[in-house]
């Protein structure tokens, strides 16, 4: 088969189909953890390879759609592979593969008395399928299904171990997510009532004939739903309390990836369905407040996981900034920054897992001397931390410069205010990561206020029920399993690759942004030439 759109149509369903079939298989072999792991790794490697091929083909041939189940457009389920969807698939599959290798290295295995880990891998694969489905969906209801698969799987992953803190955080997370889902479902109902379709391409044509007030109301409902999932202020208060309680691999994939599914949905809805820009000023204000309030929250934290959770919220503001500009340069910067942030944020949360393994805590009051104890761990933290802070020549600097240049070129007071806010946020982010470096890595542990204590004992690394034990009682200090360290270093390398190959990545981002700006590309891919309303 030649490299053509026909091959895209063949490959497009696989990022959803492979993990779902693998999830079913791992359930059947739940008592054979070695086979479970082999199936999971094979599935995620396959998804990564397929996603890489889809990105190459989409960048070469443009957007292509495939009908699932034999139903014609717009009635059936349509999957669309364009540059944005393919890029998100590839970046997410790389992260999902790295995190599962890390989880295996951390010792997640069948039969632990306090944690039903035999369901971890099937649930993780279901999460992968939900993420892929959300990126490929070409109708609102199918996107809703992808979000619901994410919700079901993420609740299980968030509460593994059933400790009080995890269940409490899981209940809070699910309640917020259910509210978001109900709002999303209401938005779907409003959109269908107004347009008579849920197909995004067909809906984009019909919304042009809808009165402005009705169109803004529909967009507002969808923005609230997606904003909760993306953790956009003022809908972000749930995140810092939900993510840090989960195991390190779960926290990493949640923080790095799941919020970006919400950002992707905002990008797609804004550019395809509501390009008129009536709510751009609202998005700009939300983006600015997300940046500033998020980073101020990070400054106030003494636990590294909570600190990173607040920086996660803060940097969502950069992406919303790019979307709200409604220009090709703004969207290009946002697309590049999403890819950068998925990689870097996931890496940092994996590093925190290594810090907890090394030092028995993630609290800055108890950490110190890590640079001397493990120079490799110090390097693995420092590179993505500087990247997050936007130090040149890293990808964080490149992404922020692209967004700030787009803001300067936008002739409005709000855009200039966002440029100032983005600059301040970048400087404060650098201050935050420098503070972690100074306290956790540079000073002696004896100088830490609670340096003689650790959070958990070796037996409680999975079930964090023991607290405040003497640090000297830990038996595994300095031991970082190779399968935890290797994927973390791999993601550091991917983050550096975004810098080394920034020209190629910016090229893909530019072309993806151009496609987003030109709705006819997407509409033609789904409905064909001359597809009518």
From TrEMBL:
InterPro entries per the UniProt record, alphabetical: CPA3_Na-H_Antiporter_D, NADH_UbQ_OxRdtase, ND/Mrp_TM
GO molecular function: NADH dehydrogenase (ubiquinone) activity
Residues passing through the membrane, by range: 12-29, 41-58, 84-105, 117-137, 143-161, 173-195, 215-239, 246-267, 282-300, 307-328, 334-355, 413-434, 482-506
Membrane topology: Multi-pass membrane protein
Domain NADH:quinone oxidoreductase/Mrp antiporter transmembrane span(s) in chain numbering: 137-425
GO-annotated biological processes: ATP synthesis coupled electron transport
Keywords: Cell membrane, Membrane, Transmembrane, Transmembrane helix
Major subcellular location class: membrane
GO CC field: plasma membrane
Localisation per UniProt entry: Cell membrane; Membrane
PANTHER family on file: NA(+)_H(+) ANTIPORTER SUBUNIT D1, NADH DEHYDROGENASE
Similarity field: Belongs to the CPA3 antiporters (TC 2.A.63) subunit D family.
Protein name, entry field: Na+/H+ antiporter subunit D
